[in-house]
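Lecture notes, unit on binding sites. The following record was shown on slide 14. It pairs a sequence with S-adenosylmethionine.
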Amino acid sequence: MQLKKGDLIPVIIHKLAFGGAGLGECQISQELAEQKPWLKSISGIKIFVPDTIPGDQLLVSLTKIKSNRLEGKIHSFTKLSALRIEPRCQHFPVCGGCVWQNIEYKNQLSYKQQQVQEALAHLGNFPESELLRIIKPIILCNSPFEYRNKMEFSFGRSQEGKVMLGLHSPGMRHEVFDLKECFLPSGIFANLVEVVRDFAKKEKLEVYDDRTQDGLLKNLIIREGKNTGQIMVNLVTSANSFPAINRFKELFKIGIWKDKIHSLLWTTVMQSRGVPTWRESQVLVGKATIHEQLKLENGHKLDFEISAQSFFQPNTHQAEILYAQVVKLAGLTGKEVVYDLYCGTGTIGLFCAHAAKKVYGIESVKEAIENARANAKRNQISNAEFIIEDVGKWLGDNQSNPQSIAPDVVVMDPPRAGLNPDIPQKIAHLKVPKIVYVSCNPATLARDLRLFYDLGYFPEIVQPVDMFPHTYHVETVVQLKKTKKDS
Ligand SMILES: C[S@@+](CC[C@H](N)C(=O)[O-])C[C@H]1O[C@@H](n2cnc3c(N)ncnc32)[C@H](O)[C@@H]1O
């Protein structure tokens, strides 16, 4: 007999892996090995099991068999971990939004800290003793609930054909569950979901199905300025006929909603295979945008105008803390030229501008740069320039330009995939003494830090920040300095 999918294996979970699954070890007792000799070879082998936590002991049904690791799903528990707590939300664990809500917040923080440390040790090849010195304790989120300023809900249909509005369970692209509560944003989000769902039911509206490209209702996107209290409600539909739209609009002109909703939008999206997606937003009530503010560490506030399409950090208060760390680790004194690479809508660059001589923000998405320029203007920031360009190309062009101003600090916040392999080399060519790397992915961060290390840049301070409590995500800010021998 050979090991196969569906085999039941006794497992003990030791850790939480990046991605949220429990990481454990196959425990093949002598008795079991005698009954099923083909299991002997996997004794002590690592196994990933979603929805488990350290201390759980269970029988796991194998789902994936690879030479160096196994994956499985819960069959039955023999002992539940003492670290488990009662999750606050009734949708746990059906909703994949908060996979760690059954773990006390302080324990979540230590797993995140451990993940950063292990990624840098195993994928970055940095010695553990060095890492213990440079990795600072993770900065916690003071409000681990009600922190999100944006949520996107989806419409779906129950088997009986009833309209549903909520979130997708992990791996369920077409099915949603009816959301009754969610503690990641403020309570008003669930109230709005209920109002819109009831309206859709009453009006007998069709839900859009992307397999047949029929129907109307797609999403409900809600945003809330945490420092301004302004709320945007955006109903997203297909371009099919929607005669009830006027009655939808009237809903928000009465009762408690009248003074609460700053912007009510209706966005129609046209999607068909082989044709670029087209979308258009109409203002039904109030304005096309809302405002959000970020407090600088000197007490001043930066004002941001957010449209339906704008990107904004989903946790406003932690964004203030994260960006203040960037300014601190950049060591700005007012005299520095700063490059803000992968600048998006310019929030990091604008945060740095008050403490720098000049900021250059580089980003490839035109709309994001337009937002960044508008944000600079609104906040009367004249020492920040935003440029639409691919970072690799811009670094290349900029080096060959004798007029270019060499940076004193390079700050970068790349996407999850991290840097293209040529980027560290291009940055090293600038002979910049200090780099601040903001990352949402410890694995790609570790890989890139090793590339910088080989070019003479050593990570001096590694600061994890918890932006998303109850999820496995962790943000990290790293200060790198050029070592003397290579300068
Ligand atoms: C993690 S986000 C940065 C968000 C930004 N700090 C903000 O607050 O808006 C990464 C950004 O990199 C941009 N990007 C990705 N690849 C790029 C490239 N090769 N050149 C320039 N920008 C790029 C994306 O469009 C995205 O806005």
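Take-home: The chain has a mean pLDDT of 93.
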